[in-house]
Please model this.
Amino acid sequence: MKFKLQFKDKEYEIEISETEQGETKIKVNKKEFIFEGEKPKEKSLSSVKSFPKKDFSEKAITAPISGVISEIFVKERAQVKKGEKLILLSAMKMENEIVSDYDGKIKEILVKKNQKVKSGETLLIIK
Amino acid sequence: MKLLRYKIIDSTNFLAKKIAKESREKAWTIVFAEQQKTGYGKDKRNWYSPRGGLYFSVVLPRTGIEDLQTLTILTAFIIAKVIKENFNLEPLIKLPNDIYIGKKKVAGVLTETIVSSNVKSSIIGIGINTNIKDFPKDLKNIATSLEIVLDKKVDNEKILKQIIEGLKQQEGLKQQKGLKQQLKIINE
Model:
């Protein structure tokens, strides 16, 4: 079974098949992973040098729709609470007040007032 | 559907937003005012709201942000259709959502949402210059009213009812048809 998977901006070609020995073979782009039962064979895993690191304590606030940043209500390093308004995003004549889904500290603001943004674009990061 | 009627209010959008935040059960609550003290449009620009005009905001049911954008555009079509059919006028829609008669603005729509990972609440506000005899100097060249154009008063309540009916129809249609078909129906 072959299929393509898009994750963030990168596309991965994935092929799942069975080896002659009855093991499951998963090919991601050109890397092969062979699974026997539930555990992957160490040999195949050893060829993977590192996995991308992700800080799960960081939460990205993204644009729900394409538009223009009309107002930024918070500053970097400010503490925010769940439900607190962060950014006003105007799309057509729809004004969207983007509120925080989390309690935390504003780690980084990636946009400026009057900047055009696309749907899904990260606006700020809360930690 | 609940109609909240006010002689005078700060802004119908402002109150509708407050109501929308309170509970999901408030969908289709309509805030209607005879006059607004601080009516506003896009970017909090002042919307001239003396007695005589039609000002109302509707708390919308919970839906996706793209649907709200579609609804905002469709609302302009609904208003234009109501004006055209009742008064035999040829209103122009300046997309996304201003309605003109000739070169002057007669109505405007402003949707406001509160959103995080999903839409928490949304409202749509409508202002129509209906029974306004005159405009201040700075608006005279850019705004008009149905009373000025028709040289007679119009029935605000009838217009309100027809627009709400149009909005409610959209909710039903949304389940079955795409945007193009909806626009076709509105234009028929």
User: Anything to note?
Assistant: Chain B has one domain: 2-187. The beta strands of chain B are 2-6, 29-33, 54-59, 92-94, 98-101, 104-115, 119-128.
